[in-house]
């Protein structure tokens, strides 16, 4: 290598003032190139821009051939070409230097020896001298919150005066590939004080960084903790991540932040109204969503009929939603995947935080069991609305009672640098007693053991074992009609996930999982005073669902990336009794021809699912992208319901001899654009989804305590399609977004030869949750450093209902109603405005209590939004509004 290289580099430094001109615009090719020599391309670029390239002719780069299209990013294309031949493209201000890596290494290494006096200012990574000065080394580490010891997702680490840089993943980890040398890194995260870190990189090593919260937040209100470019650069279509800062900025109901309800403000996500548990994604029903907490399945995602979320906001790190199948490591539902990730306890110091409200309160304690080694986290919540119910005028209400509590705990232990073990648990209990005679109870018990192991910086493993038990009970104490009804689902799950980095932009994930179910489809036990009813026990159902998967994520080129995977699932229905029906008759109790009985753990029915999926992202420009995806998913368990939302009488049922698994194919196409330095972002996505074997019930069917339920269930096809639009402002005093969704969700049941097993004559009809138009407006206005106002407005088309269209009446004795086709009418449209005001404590950096007051008004103008319309036997209509007036609340959140 020519030793004049350092002189060339110094010349460039001194020439900066004459030649350099910084620009935010990328350098693009102004023509097509096919097998063009690199020097020719560089001369053309210099003639049409202010960029200058420096190199020596005897390096032989005229043998490097360029293939490019007009409008492509020239720097990315040339850099990729040079890397293939051991060369680098080094940017400096407005200049660009082509330099052989060996020469650069030698030059930088000589610098270290000349600047020994300054080495005390640098953090040294690696020892001795570079193992091979011709090859890059790896710098990796984790970026965390210095106070909470929590990983920061989407934090950026950038090489100053260079295009080299990355953002952290969901665990706060990053990895950079750099040649040995001296660097200055800038580490940044929204709402935190940036750090400038000088590093002398000799060999591969680790650099962990802790960031502190900014003392004052003068202007910026964080909408997303992830890098704001991530909407454009995200490789997986239909993925949404809300961090806790976003969730807490939304207006609350009764002072409680609900991460699940916050998703409803996003396009493609909706609910059927107040007082409903669950949510709907892209035309799916609530039972088609896979809801998880730290990777463990949760069957009840809310408290008190949906008014409170099941997840304590103080525990949440972020909420991750896939509006489709997601990567291949997820499966089992045909609509969406929601994973609520909880943070670890503070491993450095004790912390106490919580909130006190009119209806509910919460408390969290966390700290180290052994500093920087073992941490714990313990939280609890409880609700006490009874004092408010007692003041209601309606006797049915003031004689009622309600409440809930939940408890979370987590212990995280760092065994060594390569092994982390965690234990966590969740316990919840809901109760609602209506008019002093009927009590509804929901209980969840959840336990998780997780082991993370690092074989190397590029090869990771996570092992997880989960036990989950969900029970739903109804107790009636009415004299002569007392009873106890129970249903639920119990499961045990084990899974092992591996992640291997094949290259700088190439990651492979693979793993295996197995999930054992025990279904309780209903037990009815009459009380001691009930002499008119008999005990009914619906036989238990057991099943085993297993899967293996592989998921590959890589960049085909700087502009084109692909995430594709394959999941192979197997479902075994174990034991139980199944009816055989006469194929020449409609399925009824009268057409049962035989009963098949299977021993415990004997395979009664087996299903196999092949589930491919792929997501393609093309960067049209550095600030815009187009994404295309396809997902196929299988769902082997079904939520049996005759209501539009999850209720106490709903229960889960296994696929088996007469009930097939649902299969969905979803296609999406989206365009994403950021502009004005990521101040604004806009997205437009369209989707189409076909579902096979959706489950519904016959007209006049009985789904509760029905020993021959298979005779009343039918399966057909579903179709959902729509378009989602979002525009968001990320910075400034006013932040927020506007989202609009047009969608349709239709079903058709016409495969049977018998009219009794068809709905609406075999034509497509709207599903219970079909809402063509859905609009949400979310705004956050920072009035001052301490005072902020939040607004949420929601509008949607009224949901479908079935109504009587005529009646036959004989005097005042007999009245027979004649109903319309199913879901042919709609309740009135829904709209609601919520406001909240947040007053933070003083701006002193050191204070004993860091607190905030939150004042909120739910349903500001008192809209009586109809949840449903009911009809008496004589055809009189009554509209049910769960909340028909404005609902103010106040709460105080604190942190010691």
UniProtKB/TrEMBL annotation:
<feature type="domain" description="TonB-dependent receptor-like beta-barrel">
    <location>
        <begin position="412"/>
        <end position="839"/>
    </location>
</feature>
<dbReference type="InterPro" id="IPR000531">
    <property type="entry name" value="Beta-barrel_TonB"/>
</dbReference>
<dbReference type="Pfam" id="PF07715">
    <property type="entry name" value="Plug"/>
</dbReference>
<keyword id="KW-0798">TonB box</keyword>
<keyword id="KW-0812">Transmembrane</keyword>
<keyword id="KW-0813">Transport</keyword>
<protein>
    <submittedName>
        <fullName>TonB-dependent receptor</fullName>
    </submittedName>
</protein>
<keyword id="KW-0732">Signal</keyword>
<dbReference type="Pfam" id="PF00593">
    <property type="entry name" value="TonB_dep_Rec_b-barrel"/>
</dbReference>
<keyword id="KW-0675">Receptor</keyword>
<dbReference type="InterPro" id="IPR008969">
    <property type="entry name" value="CarboxyPept-like_regulatory"/>
</dbReference>
<feature type="signal peptide">
    <location>
        <begin position="1"/>
        <end position="20"/>
    </location>
</feature>
<keyword id="KW-0472">Membrane</keyword>
<dbReference type="InterPro" id="IPR039426">
    <property type="entry name" value="TonB-dep_rcpt-like"/>
</dbReference>
<dbReference type="InterPro" id="IPR012910">
    <property type="entry name" value="Plug_dom"/>
</dbReference>
<dbReference type="InterPro" id="IPR036942">
    <property type="entry name" value="Beta-barrel_TonB_sf"/>
</dbReference>
<keyword id="KW-0998">Cell outer membrane</keyword>
<keyword id="KW-1134">Transmembrane beta strand</keyword>
<comment type="similarity">
    <text>Belongs to the TonB-dependent receptor family.</text>
</comment>
<dbReference type="InterPro" id="IPR037066">
    <property type="entry name" value="Plug_dom_sf"/>
</dbReference>
<feature type="domain" description="TonB-dependent receptor plug">
    <location>
        <begin position="263"/>
        <end position="333"/>
    </location>
</feature>
<dbReference type="Pfam" id="PF13715">
    <property type="entry name" value="CarbopepD_reg_2"/>
</dbReference>
């Amino acid at each position: 290598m020519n030793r004049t290289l350092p002189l060339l580099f110094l010349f460039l430094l001194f020439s900066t003032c004459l030649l350099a001109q910084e620009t935010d615009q990328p350098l693009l090719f102004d023509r097509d190139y096919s097998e063009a020599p690199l020097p020719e391309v560089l001369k053309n670029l210099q003639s049409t821009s202010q960029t200058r390239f420096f190199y020596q002719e005897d390096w032989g780069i005229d043998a490097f051939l360029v293939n490019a299209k007009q409008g492509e990013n020239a720097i990315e294309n040339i850099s990729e070409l040079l890397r293939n031949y051991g060369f680098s493209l080094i940017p400096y201000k407005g200049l660009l230097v082509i330099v052989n890596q060996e020469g650069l290494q030698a030059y930088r290494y000589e610098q270290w020896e000349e600047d020994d006096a300054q080495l005390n200012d640098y953090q040294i990574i690696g020892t001795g001298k570079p193992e091979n000065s011709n090859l890059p080394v790896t710098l990796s580490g984790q970026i965390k919150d210095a106070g909470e010891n929590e990983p920061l997702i989407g934090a950026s680490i950038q090489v100053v005066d260079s295009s080299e840089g990355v953002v952290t993943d969901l665990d706060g980890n990053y990895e950079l590939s750099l040649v040995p040398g001296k660097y200055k890194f800038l580490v940044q995260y929204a709402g935190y004080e940036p750090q400038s870190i000088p590093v002398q990189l000799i060999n591969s090593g680790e650099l962990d960084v802790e960031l502190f919260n900014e003392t004052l937040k003068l202007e910026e209100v964080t909408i997303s903790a992830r890098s704001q470019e991530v909407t454009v650069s995200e490789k997986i279509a239909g993925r949404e991540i809300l961090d806790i800062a976003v969730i807490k900025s939304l207006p609350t109901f009764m002072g409680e932040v609900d991460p699940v309800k916050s998703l409803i403000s996003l396009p493609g996500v909706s609910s059927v109204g107040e007082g409903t548990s669950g949510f709907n994604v892209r035309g799916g029903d609530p039972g088609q969503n896979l809801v998880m907490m730290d990777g463990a399945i949760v069957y009840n995602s809310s408290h008190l009929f949906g008014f409170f979320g099941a997840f304590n906001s103080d525990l949440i790190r972020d909420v991750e939603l896939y509006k489709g199948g997601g990567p291949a490591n997820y499966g089992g539902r045909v609509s969406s995947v929601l994973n609520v990730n909880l943070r670890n306890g503070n491993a450095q110091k004790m912390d106490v935080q919580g909130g006190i409200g009119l209806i509910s309160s919460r408390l969290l304690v966390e700290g180290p069991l052994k500093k920087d080694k073992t941490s714990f986290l313990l939280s609890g919540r409880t609700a006490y609305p009874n004092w408010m119910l007692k003041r209601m005028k309606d006797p049915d209400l003031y004689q009622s009672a309600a409440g809930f509590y939940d408890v979370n705990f987590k212990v995280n232990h760092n065994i060594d640098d390569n092994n982390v073990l965690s234990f966590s648990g969740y316990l919840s209990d809901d109760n609602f007693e209506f008019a002093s005679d009927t009590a509804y109870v929901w209980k969840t018990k959840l336990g998780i053991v997780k082991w993370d192991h690092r074989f190397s910086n590029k090869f990771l493993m996570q092992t997880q074992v989960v036990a989950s038990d969900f029970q739903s009970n109804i107790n009636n104490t009415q004299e002569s009609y007392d009873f106890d009804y129970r249903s639920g689902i119990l499961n045990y799950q084990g899974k092992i996930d591996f992640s291997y980095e094949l290259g700088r932009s190439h990651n492979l994930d693979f793993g295996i999982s197995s999930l054992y179910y025990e279904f309780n489809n209903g037990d009815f036990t009459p009380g001691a005073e009930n002499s008119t009813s008999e005990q009914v026990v619906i036989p238990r159902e057991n099943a085993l669902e297993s899967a293996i998967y592989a998921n590959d994520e890589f960049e085909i080129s700087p502009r084109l990336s692909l995430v594709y995977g394959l999941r192979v699932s197997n479902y075994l229905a174990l034991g139980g009794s199944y009816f055989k029906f006469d194929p020449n008759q409609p399925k009824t109790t009268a057409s049962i021809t035989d009963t098949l009985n299977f021993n415990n753990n004997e395979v009664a029915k087996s299903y196999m699912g092949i589930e491919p999926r792929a997501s393609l992202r093309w960067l049209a420009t550095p600030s815009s992208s187009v994404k295309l995806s396809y997902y196929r998913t299988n769902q082997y368990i079904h939520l049996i319901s005759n209501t539009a939302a999850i209720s106490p009488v709903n229960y889960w049922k296994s696929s088996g001899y007469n009930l097939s698994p649902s299969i969905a194919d979803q296609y999406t196409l989206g365009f994403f654009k950021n502009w004005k330095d990521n101040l604004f972002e806009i997205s437009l996505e369209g989707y189409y989804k076909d579902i096979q074997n959706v489950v519904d019930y016959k007209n006049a069917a009985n789904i509760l305590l029905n020993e021959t339920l298979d005779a009343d269930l039918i399966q057909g096809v579903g179709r959902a399609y729509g378009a989602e639009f979002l525009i968001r402002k990320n910075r400034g005093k006013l932040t927020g977004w506007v989202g609009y969704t047009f969608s349709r969700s239709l079903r058709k049941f016409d495969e049977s030869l018998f009219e009794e097993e068809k709905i609406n004559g075999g034509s497509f009809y709207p599903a219970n949750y079909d809402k063509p138009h859905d609009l949400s407006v979310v705004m956050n206005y920072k009035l001052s450093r301490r005072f902020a106002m939040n607004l949420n407005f929601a509008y949607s088309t009224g949901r479908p209902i079935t109504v009587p269209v005529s009646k036959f009446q004989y005097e005042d004795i007999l009245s027979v109603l004649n109903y319309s086709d199913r879901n042919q009418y709609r309740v009135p449209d829904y709209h609601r405005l919520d406001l909240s005001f947040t007053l933070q404590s003083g701006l002193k950096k050191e204070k004993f209590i860091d607190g905030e007051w939150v004042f909120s008004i739910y349903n500001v103008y008192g809209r009586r939004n109809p949840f449903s319309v009911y009809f008496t036997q004589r055809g009189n209509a009554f509209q049910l509004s769960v909340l028909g007036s404005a609902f103010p609340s106040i709460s105080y959140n604190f942190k010691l």
